[in-house]
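Exercise 7. Given the encoded structure of a 282-residue chain, write a plausible sequence.
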């Protein structure tokens, strides 16, 4: 295990009303860190700041309003303190078959899950780069590595954030900035419940492949094996590490399913290796 540093930090976490964002905010505050959390509704501001006055700071921000992001980051840097850790947590799931979903739904999924996080990263990076220090955590999903039918738009957004995270990490490594993609499996958050957007069904041909998965997802909501509070403790350990990983799976289901995917990829690549190699110039 890598060395651990014990200093307190300023965390900027998007989406702290529920789920991983709330669990991490509460754990970080309990550990003595300062937390700036974003909310989309004024009603939640006072409750969040009451968690630990003087340490918990709420900012109203919708990450899809990209023009508003840089001023908020500047305000935090000037009035609260240097942002040591950025946690891109805000996001949602879109459940729907590709043929039954709209391009507008796809754009919305990417606006929230990809464009918003990247805009926040772009606003924070100049400060971290100047200080030659910082850690960016992008909460993606095991669904940024594995796929299931019926949530293609969600997978697409998480695959995109995975790729951006990994490449970004290589761009900023020499500046002392770490980037980690957090890849949770099934956790007891609102992802499959209140936060899930579900497209209307219209094509019976897909019933056999899709309906059992939709039903299983609804039945498992609130009964997933993952504990958000334990995930929060792991993330606190991660931001204290001097050599954090580029990818971090959370949950036994994530470990199992991702390993299965990697095995299938290797098998397929090996089976088609001669064909793959045949396309180079002699």
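Solution.
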């Amino acid at each position: 295990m890598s060395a651990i540093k014990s200093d307190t930090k300023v965390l900027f976490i998007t989406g702290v009303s529920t789920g991983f964002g709330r669990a991490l905010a509460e754990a970080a505050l309990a550990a003595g860190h300062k937390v700036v959390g974003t909310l989309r509704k004024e009603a939640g501001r006072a409750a969040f700041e009451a968690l630990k006055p003087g340490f918990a700071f709420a900012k109203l921000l919708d990450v899809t309003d990209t023009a508003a992001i840089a001023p908020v980051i500047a305000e935090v840097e000037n009035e609260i303190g240097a942002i040591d850790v950025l946690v891109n947590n805000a996001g949602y799931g879109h459940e729907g078959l590709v043929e039954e979903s709209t391009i507008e739904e796809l754009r919305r999924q990417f606006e929230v899950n990809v464009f918003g996080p990247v805009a926040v990263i772009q606003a924070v990076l100049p400060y971290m780069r100047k200080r030659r220090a910082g850690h960016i955590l992008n909460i993606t999903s095991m669904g940024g590595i594995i796929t299931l039918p019926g949530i293609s738009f969600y997978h697409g957004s998480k695959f995109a954030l995975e790729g951006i995270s990994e490449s970004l990490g290589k761009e900023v490594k020499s500046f002392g900035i770490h980037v980690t993609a957090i890849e949770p499996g099934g956790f007891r958050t609102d992802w499959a419940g209140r936060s899930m957007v579900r497209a209307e069904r219209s094509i019976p041909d897909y019933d056999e492949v899709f309906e059992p998965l939709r039903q299983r997802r609804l039945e498992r909501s609130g009964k997933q094996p993952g504990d958000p509070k334990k995930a929060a403790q792991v993330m606190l350990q991660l931001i204290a590490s001097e050599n954090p990983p580029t990818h971090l799976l959370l949950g036994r289901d994530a470990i199992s399913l991702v390993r299965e995917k990697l095995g299938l990829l290797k098998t397929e690549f090996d089976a088609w290796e001669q064909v793959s190699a045949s396309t180079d110039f002699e």
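Remark. Residues 111 and 278 are 40 Å apart (CA to CA). Students should compare their own answers with the one above.
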